[in-house]
């Protein structure tokens, strides 16, 4: 019998997967695993059985004798074959196809791969053929049942059992007397065909030839490491260093298990956190839909995005915080940043979990088969595993993404698409900065020092629905909140410093960042008198009134005629509101700091003495077609900054009253702001 050391190794790496796969089996533990003792009077192994029936199983047996056992896709165990596995001490179940169902062409193909000099060929024999017919433990046919069996290649296959026979992944088993053959180290069932093998998504990308650019990107994130715990140590070398008679390696891919990746050491030097799938696309117990772009699709998307992903060799670095010391990071490679940033933005939205999508119109959950058949037609939006929400906008439909025939994988369905039909609103989004999302906006005092909003500034809640009589006429407030931003004292205007980092929860892309290209820069101001409504509600002064004559009695008991003013429900006195607005106008200047021509910090004026009448929620475009020459997309510590400074003077705030102008308009020093919008132009 072969060396048990390797058989124990096989069991160690496969046991955890196998135990999770056999849930629901009706066999007892003893049915699954026996020690090296006689079973029903036999001392023969699985391999002995094949040798005794060589005329029937010679093709499978010859492949087994030539197929090396691989610990991972690049590390075979020297001189150890699957004949040794089937002759060893580990208990296995073998579903064996005979010579009649293993055609000559197929037999020659697998045999040639066994004898190939290419490591990947030998590994694929294990994964796609031999390992797809062997499972750990005994899987007997005792009672009618349906099990999911974890094969030693990691695949989950369906084992149907009934009346002494059944099927494996839809392939029929032999007659009763050809199954349940108990042997020393396992059990054999005859199979009337080849158990179908399907790649999982990761295997499809890694092993399909020629490998696509997308496949190269994903496989390029593999990390293979040596496991001292699993390896078998031998005698130390002449210098006292340990040596290993059996070295065990594991391969992991950093794209699978999280949204972003940063190394444990040296992460402070990474200007970008690497975006990932946040989906284990190699997991056999998952069911996903995945877009797999062809080279045509990859190149088209890369070319589309290049102009929006232009990076500079230096940036202002704010890793120590907005109020801390700002430094400059230099010596960056713009081409490398562009390649990394575009690549991870292409791959991060490609995977979809059907069970995470919104319910169907009949309030039921989507099933994979239904979604595939309709391409999700009617789904309100799509949610990818990275966490992005893709909504129908304009002529774009969520179903546009799935513009290829689905290909079944072992853990879902792949769409090999020749184009990636994401909406432009997702690829090149507006940047929306909600001013009330505290912690990122600052007043700047005249001395140049800064203090956080909250020191004199105040957040107001304004319910658009509660005050719909006003909001329907004078504008709704985004996210039902806004900020009042005063100066450092009653006689000075505020100076605001605002990060241009998206943070609006209702934006198409909530956390959008500025990219290279043109934007219209907009400031959204809120009427100052909205503050009073937020604090005290709407008084009767806001409504038109009807006059009703009434008879009153004075303190002497005498009656007299009077007039009662009754507010009209829902009818706003627009004259009164205009008067309020005339005393609460805004005037301000706007400038911006950004990366221009490789200079990490250039300050430029955008607009001076911009006026808002204070009558309505006012979206003011302070600069059209402003072009950012460099992108901040995916940069961790760099972003442009918008400066807004109140420009009202004392003569604006306390204007001179004359006979010709008895009611001059009044400005205010302070500002009431809802949000900042950078509308993407190209």
Report helical residue fraction: 10-25%
Task: Please state the overall shape, judged from the principal axes of the Cα atoms.
Answer: elongated
Mean pLDDT: 86
**Which parts are unreliable, with pLDDT below 50 for 5 consecutive residues or more?**
1-6, 11-38
Q: Number of helical runs?
A: 17
Summary, kept brief:
This protein is α+β, with helices and mostly antiparallel strands. It has 3 domains: 4-197, FAS1 domain (Roll), CATH 2.30.180; 198-422, no CATH class; 431-535 and 572-680, Jelly Rolls. It has 17 helices and 36 strands.
Explained architecture:
- The chain is of the alpha+beta class and 682 residues long.
- The protein has 3 domains: 4-197, FAS1 domain (Roll); 198-422, no CATH class; 431-535 and 572-680, Sandwich (Jelly Rolls), CATH 2.60.120.260.
- Strands 23, 26, 27, 29, 34 and 36 form a 6-stranded antiparallel beta sheet that branches.
- Strand 32 (586-596) and strand 33 (599-612) form a beta hairpin.
- Helix 8 (201-207) crosses helix 9.
- The chain is elongated.
What features would you highlight for this structure?
682 residues; alpha+beta; FAS1 domain; Jelly Rolls; 3 domains; 6-stranded antiparallel β-sheet; elongated; disordered N terminus
How do the helices and strands line up, and which of them pair or pack?
Elements: H1 4-21, H2 29-32, H3 46-52, H4 54-66, E1 68-72, E2 75-81, H5 82-86, E3 92-97, H6 104-114, H7 119-128, E4 134-136, E5 145-150, E6 156-162, E7 165-168, E8 171-172, E9 181-183, E10 186-191, H8 201-207, H9 213-219, E11 222-233, E12 244-253, E13 260-261, E14 274-275, E15 288-293, H10 295-305, E16 315-317, E17 327-329, H11 334-347, E18 351-352, H12 368-374, E19 381-383, E20 389-391, E21 406-409, E22 412-417, H13 424-427, E23 431-434, E24 441-444, E25 450-452, E26 458-461, H14 468-474, E27 481-485, E28 495-499, E29 517-525, H15 530-536, E30 543-553, E31 559-572, H16 574-582, E32 586-596, E33 599-612, E34 618-628, E35 641-646, H17 650-653, E36 671-680
Parallel strand pairs: 3-10, 15-22
Antiparallel strand pairs: 1-2, 3-4, 5-6, 6-7, 7-8, 9-10, 11-12, 13-14, 15-18, 16-17, 19-20, 21-22, 23-36, 24-25, 24-28, 26-27, 27-36, 28-35, 29-34, 29-36, 30-31, 32-33, 32-35
Helix pairs in contact: 3-4, 4-6, 8-9
């Amino acid at each position: 019998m072969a060396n048990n050391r390797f058989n124990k190794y096989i069991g160690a790496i496969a046991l955890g997967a196998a135990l999770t796969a056999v849930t629901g089996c009706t066999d007892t533990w003893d049915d699954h695993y026996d020690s090296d003792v006689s079973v029903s009077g036999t001392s023969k192994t699985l391999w002995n059985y094949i040798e005794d029936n060589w005329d029937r199983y010679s093709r499978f047996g010859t492949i087994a004798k030539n197929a090396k056992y691989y610990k991972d896709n690049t590390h075979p165990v020297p001189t150890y074959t699957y004949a040794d596995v089937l002759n060893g001490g580990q208990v296995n179940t073998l579903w064996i196809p005979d010579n009649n169902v293993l055609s000559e062409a197929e037999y020659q193909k697998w045999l040639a791969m066994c004898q190939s000099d290419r490591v990947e060929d030998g590994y694929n024999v294990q994964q796609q053929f031999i390992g797809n017919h062997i499972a750990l433990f005994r899987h007997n046919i005792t009672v009618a049942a349906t099990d999911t069996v974890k094969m030693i290649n990691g695949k989950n296959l369906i084992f149907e059992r009934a009346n002494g026979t059944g099927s494996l992944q839809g392939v029929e088993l032999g007659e009763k007397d050809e199954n349940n053959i108990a042997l020393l180290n396992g059990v054999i069932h005859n199979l009337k065909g080849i158990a179908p093998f399907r790649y999982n998504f990761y295997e499809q990308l890694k092993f399909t030839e020629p490998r696509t650019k997308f496949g190269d990107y994903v496989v390029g994130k593999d990390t293979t490491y040596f496991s001292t715990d699993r390896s078998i140590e031998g005698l130390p070398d002449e210098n006292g260093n340990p040596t290993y008679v059996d070295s065990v390696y594991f391969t992991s891919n950093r794209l699978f298990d999280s949204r972003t990746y940063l190394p444990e050491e040296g992460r402070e030097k990474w200007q970008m956190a690497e975006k990932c799938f946040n989906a284990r696309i190699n997991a056999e117990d998952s069911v996903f839909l995945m877009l797999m772009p062809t080279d045509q699709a990859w190149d088209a998307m890369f070319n589309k995005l290049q102009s929006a992903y232009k990076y500079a060799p230096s940036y202002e670095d704010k890793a120590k915080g907005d109020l801390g010391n700002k430094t400059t990071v230099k010596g960056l490679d713009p081409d490398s940043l562009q390649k990394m940033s575009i690549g991870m933005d292409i791959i991060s939205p490609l995977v979809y979990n059907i069970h995470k999508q919104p319910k169907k119109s009949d309030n039921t959950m989507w099933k994979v088969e239904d979604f595939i058949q309709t391409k999700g037609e009617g789904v309100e939006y799509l949610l990818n595993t990275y966490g992005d929400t893709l909504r129908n906008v304009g002529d774009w439909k969520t179903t546009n993404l799935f513009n290829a025939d689905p290909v079944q994988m072992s853990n879902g369905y792949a769409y090999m698409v020749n184009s990636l039909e994401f909406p432009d609103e997702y690829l090149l989004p507006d940047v929306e900065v909600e001013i009330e999302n505290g912690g990122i906006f600052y007043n700047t005092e005249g001395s140049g020092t800064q203090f956080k909003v909250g020191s004199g500034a105040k957040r107001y809640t304004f319910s658009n629905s509660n005050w719909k009589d006003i909001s329907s006429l004078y504008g709704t407030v985004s996210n039902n909140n806004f900020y009042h931003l005063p100066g450092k004292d009653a006689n000075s205007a505020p100076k605001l410093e605002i990060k241009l980092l998206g943070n609006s929860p209702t934006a198409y892309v909530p956390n959008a960042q500025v990219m290279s290209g043109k934007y219209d820069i907009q400031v959204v101001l809120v009427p100052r008198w909205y503050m009073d409504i937020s604090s005290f509600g709407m008084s009767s002064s806001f409504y038109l009134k009807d006059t009703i004559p009434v008879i009153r009695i004075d303190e002497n008991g005498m009656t007299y005629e009077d007039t009662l003013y009754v507010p009209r429900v829902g009818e706003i006195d627009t004259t009164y509101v205009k008067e309020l607005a005339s005393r609460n106008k805004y005037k301000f200047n706007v400038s911006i700091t950004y990366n221009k021509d490789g200079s990490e910090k250039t300050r430029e004026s955008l607009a001076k003495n911009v006026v808002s009448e204070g009558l309505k929620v006012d979206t003011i475009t302070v600069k059209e077609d402003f072009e950012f020459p460099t992108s901040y997309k995916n940069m961790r510590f760099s972003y442009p900054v918008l400066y807004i400074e109140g420009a009202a003077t004392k003569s604006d705030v306390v204007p001179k009253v004359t006979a010709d102008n008895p009611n001059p308009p009044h400005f205010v020093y302070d500002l009431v702001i809802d949000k900042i919008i950078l509308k993407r132009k190209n």
